[in-house]
Amino acid sequence: MFHCWNRGQARLRARPQKQSVWFGLAAYLDWCRNPTAHPAVKEERPCRVVEEEDVNVPKRNWKNILWSTLLTVLGIACFPANPLVLSGVIETNSYLALVVLGAVIWAVGMILVMAPITLFPRRGGVPKGKSFVCTTRLVDTGIYAVVRHPQYTGGVYAIFVTTLLFFPHWIFGVLGVIGTVVIYLSCREEDRRLIQQFGDDYVAYMKRVPRMNIFLGVVKLVRHRR
Question: Which domains, and CATH codes, for the chain?
Answer without folding.
Answer: 61-225 (1.20.120)
